[in-house]
Amino acid sequence: MLFKTLSFTAVAALSLATPAMAEDVTVTLTGVEARGGVLLASLQTRGEFMQASAAHADRIERPAAGILRLTFHDVAPGDYALTVMHDEDADGRMRMNGYMPAEGWAMINGDSLRGPPTFDHVKFTVTASGAEISVPMSYPR
């Protein structure tokens, strides 16, 4: 009986994990610099925004300079924020220089930020057919 319960629970969880209308989101990051470390990228819902985990995330070890394309699969329609951090020292945290990032980063509308980001300022919409976005990386000089 326990096996049947566990099996049903696993099947139910799998059916909830991937919505029927989920599609791909392709992100093009421009201006990536070869600074070692790891590039961390995630799509975050309003509830996940600026948290350590997200349902859709990618990790690129020692990214090369230039353009980097990422594809997030099975993304349900809705509003998301893209957060990207080039964690040069691979410590899992954004180093800061006062109030400014001391490592590379990217967000939608990042060039217009004049303070901490809000979800509404950096969000984009994923439709039933997915989304394609291009975002420039920002690096401290």
List the helices and strands and how they pair.
Layout: H1 2-17, E1 23-32, E2 38-44, E3 56-61, E4 66-75, E5 78-87, E6 96-97, E7 100-101, E8 104-106, H2 119-122, E9 123-126, E10 131-136
Parallel strand pairs: 1-10
Antiparallel strand pairs: 1-4, 2-3, 2-5, 5-8, 5-9, 6-7
Short characterization:
It contains two helices and ten strands.
Mind explaining what this structure looks like?
This protein has 2 helices and 10 strands, in the order H-E-E-E-E-E-E-E-E-H-E-E. It is mainly beta and 141 residues long. It has one domain: Immunoglobulin-like. The strands form 3 sheets. Strands 2, 3, 5, 8 and 9 form a 5-stranded antiparallel sheet that branches. Strands 4-1-10 form a 3-stranded mixed sheet, with no helix packed on it. It has a two-stranded antiparallel sheet with strand order 6-7. Strand 6 and strand 7 form a beta hairpin. The radius of gyration is 17 Å and the shape is globular. It starts with a helix and ends in a 5-residue tail after the last strand. The N terminus is likely disordered.
